[in-house]
Write a structure and sequence with these properties.
CATH class of one domain: Alpha Beta
Number of helices: 10
CATH architecture of one domain: 3-Layer(aba) Sandwich
CATH topology of one domain: Rossmann fold
Number of strands: 9
Strand order of the largest sheet: 3-2-1-4-5-6-9
Oligomer: single chain
CATH superfamily of one domain: NAD(P)-binding Rossmann-like Domain
Radius of gyration: 20 Å
Length: 321
């Protein structure tokens, strides 16, 4: 481990970023500086306000003495994006903003740039495909995935031109204490006493507990073999919607109470209501092969799915009381 690594972390107040800050603060040899958009988020001396992230953001005050950048900030995926040109909006932050930071990092003498990308670069489904791997052709299907792919390509080109070490991490759905969006909706659904009609949903989906994702990111900060590599990451144990809800309710001290309604009826309902995408995300397959990180970096997920779900449920229940 490199001693006294000074790390600039964007997205330090976000879901993944805040968990990463907490972990790095426990470890010796790291000093973390968070880059935030507004003074409201500047809660300590180790935070620098840089404003909105785009192609013009000035990071000069944040990059002093930094030798590693972890770029976790992004314009997040939005299910129903109502802007006129979603791809242009994603590109402004996720492509132009990323490459602007990377170029300034090179000028400041930064050695390594760790980019938190997304499995959406690979595609949306493995229902008729083998698990996504780093060697697969990428097929991003929405503006968010396209923007993440374009940022990756730009970073690789910059690495070739400048010698900057770029590490790309593509997580699937990330869950853990404080999770929001669809995973929070499933937690709320599990917390009800109602029987749920998902007893026949035996799909396979990869997820990653935030503690496992953070552990891999920390490994990528200074591992020699991580330089200029791309890693898919997961808990290593894919789950179905049925098993996920069963684990959630078990962690809540309840029986699963799942009714076996045929999956084809959900697909029919999705087609009739224009929500086919929602049904596919709940009931389709999306698997990733994270064996490259395990073999190349000697990485082993420190938490099981069951432990991750238990921690997530415990946090959820504490906030509901």
């Amino acid at each position: 481990m490199v001693s006294h690594s000074v790390i600039l972390l964007t997205g330090s107040t976000g879901f993944v970023g805040s968990a990463l800050v907490s972990e790095l603060q426990k470890l010796s040899g790291f000093h973390v500086v968070g880059a935030v958009r507004s003074a409201v988020s500047a809660t300590s001396d180790d935070v620098v306000v840089v404003g909105n992230i785009d192609g013009t953001t000035d990071y000069s005050s944040a990059l002093t003495g930094v030798n590693v950048v972890i770029h976790a900030a992004a314009r997040a995926h939005v299910m129903r994006d109502e802007v006129t040109n979603p791809l242009a909006e994603y590109r402004q932050v996720n492509v132009e903003g990323t490459l602007n930071l990377a170029k300034q990092a090179v000028a400041a003498g930064v050695k390594r740039f760790v980019y938190i990308s997304s499995v959406k670069v690979n595609g949306e489904s493995t229902s008729v495909l083998p698990a996504f791997a780093e060697t697969n052709a990428v097929v991003p299907e929405d503006p968010y995935g396209v923007s993440k792919h374009e940022a990756e390509e730009g970073l690789r080109l910059l690495a070739e031109e400048t010698g900057l070490e770029v590490v790309i991490v593509r997580p699937p759905l990330v869950y853990g204490p404080g999770v929001k969006a669809n995973f929070l909706s499933l937690l709320k659904l599990s917390a009800t006493k109602l029987p749920l009609p998902f007893g026949s949903v035996n799909n396979k989906r990869s997820m990653v507990y935030v503690g496992n994702l953070v552990d891999l990111i920390v490994r990528c900060i200074d591992h020699p073999s991580a330089a200029n590599e791309t890693f898919l990451v997961s808990d290593g144990n894919d789950v179905s919607l049925r098993s996920l809800l069963t684990m959630m309710r078990s962690a809540m001290g309840r029986s699963s109470r799942l009714v076996p309604v045929p999956v084809r009826l959900f697909k029919l309902a999705g087609a009739l209501t224009g929500k086919r995408g929602v049904v596919d995300r709940l009931m389709g397959d999306l698997q990733v092969d994270s064996s490259k990180a395990c073999s190349l970096l000697g990485w082993v997920p420190p938490y099981t799915v069951e432990q991750g779900i238990a921690a997530t449920v415990a946090d959820f229940m504490s906030k509901e009381q």
